[in-house]
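Schema walk-through. Below, the input block comes first and the output block second. Nothing else is stored per chain. Lengths vary across the set, and this one has 465 residues.
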Amino acid sequence: MRKSVSGRLYMLLVMMVFAITLSENAFAQVNTAKDKEFRIERSMPREAIACIDCHKKEHPGLFADWAGSRHASANITCIDCHKAEASDPDVSQAHFKQYERSDQKFGTKEYKIPIAAVVTPKDCSRCHPDEAKQYSVSKHANTMEIIWKIDPWLNKGMNSDVERTAGCYHCHGTVLEMKDGKLTSETWPNVGVGRINLDGSKGSCTSCHTRHRFSVMEARKPQACGQCHLGPDHPQIEIFTESKHGDIYDAFGDDYNWEAAPGTWSPGVDFRGPTCASCHMSGAGSVLTSHDVTERLSWELQAPLTVRPSEFKPLPAKTNWETERDKMKEVCTQCHGKTWVDDHYMKLDKVVQEYNNVYFKPAKAVFDELNEKGLLDQTRFFDEPLEVEFYELWHHEGRRARMGSAMMAPDYTWWHGFYECKKRYNGFMEEARDMIKHNKKSYISTDYPNATGNTEKPKAVFPKQ
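--- output ---
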């Protein structure tokens, strides 16, 4: 009897172990990692499938960016952005050769459609009309017009066309040109904010939302703006990094909700401290989101003489500075008290007043006197020492003092700003007074290098010149 019971218990134990093993194997099968697979939606037209299949092999990085984008999730494919009309001036003739390839199943004429390599704000406006319209009136979109109106580097031909293409135009934008069905190497590649496109539109959305991911998260981070807003003349990214806002971003930025839907990114909810985008573009309180980055400005801090945006002659803003300041103040009061915000602007206004009246206006009056007396040669610019000194007084130190104050970075306001202004001002005035006293003309750099740039304003920007 005891043996019978023991045998039954043994068999029961064996069956339990077997059942547990089966259960574990089944659980393991359910939770086995699956290979990642990208499935092409059946709703895509066959031409779009051809684009994806080809670029998946030819440009896997490009494909991976697109596959991880919101565009891909919304079934927006290559042809939704790149498809063009056969008569469009920017149609890529080289791309037609892809439909003559025998090494891939889509390389046939039945898939042939006109494609433009450059996707412009006009193309993006088909789905993002408000953003494109707001961008079109901003200083970003119109920066080519601005610099050709005021910049002696261009108007006096003081740098070469190569230096411009590799330097200035990288951020400001080129005037795109086609030759023999291809974009010219002098104007492409380029994603400058003020690029003049062949369809007549201005700018490049990929300046901030890099292709082909077009990430809203990327554009919200200060590094997106820091691609261009850095260096001795407009160091906004360095100023931001020094400021308390930048310190908070460095400490807590990994916890921000960067992926919040457009128009919903909220201070105190999705992020603790602001970035460039949250102050100048994102919505807050009753202030609406805008792609006009200059909308909320109440001073033109980059101008030689600080003026209100509506008084900036190269591109007068069609706004009221008090209305725009109130918008920015409302953004500020999402985190700060009214007294804090009001007093900050009082300080900024005093900085502007002192820069204008103590540094720029007296130096400008003496600079004008030098030119009126013929002591400076007006044929060119930057080839005489005092031309450089006067330029850097406002273009370098003067900007840093003003921008440092606006963004609450004291080291840039003082040591990189007003301290350097004093040194530059004193040296400039001493030499200028001596030249006027002795009626002495300036030394001219006869060996000034590479002053070979084209001085003709681009017709695409100035058609009535």
